[in-house]
Amino acid sequence: MKKIAIIVLLLASGVTMAQKKRILSGDFKNLKGITEFNLVFDYTDLKVDKFETEEAFLEDKMKKREEKGTAEDFKKSWFSDREERYEPKFIESFNKRFDGEIKVDKKLSSAKYTVKIQTLWIYPGYNVGVVRQSSKLNAIIKIVEIGNPDNILLSVGYEKVLGKGAAGFDYNSGYRISEAYAKLAKEFAAELKKVNK
Q1: What are 68-106's pLDDT values in tens digits?
Q2: What is the CB neighbour count within 10 angstroms for residue 151?
Q3: Nearest partner of 177 among 124, 119, 121, judged by Cα
Q4: Angle between the N-to-C axes of helices 71-81 and 54-65, in degrees from 0 to 180, rounded to the nearest 10
Q5: pTM assigned to the model
Q6: What range does the record give for the signal peptide (predicted)?
């Protein structure tokens, strides 16, 4: 029984160690009392898995799909997944944790602060039925005052945020990646809950 408890503890610590959070500037305490945030997503200079650029990733994936005639469909869905999957998933995951007390949304004109999510790196993962890998992402979340963008309340980097869901039936890369954004929102919301207790 003692061996089982140790194994469970080691596995749990491995999961928590896989994801890292690092404060780059500011403090979560600076966000205390703020009830709404305008949300901006930035994919500039995004890197994908082991490729030098996003363009190199797309070129490789499209080349593999040319014979099937699905190359352009892949490229189109790769970009449309941002607005159709990743961003709504982040918003939904964050907002459901606060029941309206604190909220984020795109184009939230009443907000005095902006949360900018800059995605730096994505590992799309895969699922071929018998073998699967969850998606991961690295991102920086930066909160600035809209009227004074030089006033950075917080900048925090997240590494290897794991996206998994659908009990292993996540065959679509867009779905897998959206789950990483849901997890990112959950982690960010958890810190806000702590400072707003």
Answers
A1: 889 999 999 999 999 999 999 999 999 999 999 999 999
A2: 13
A3: 124
A4: 140
A5: 0.88
A6: 1-18
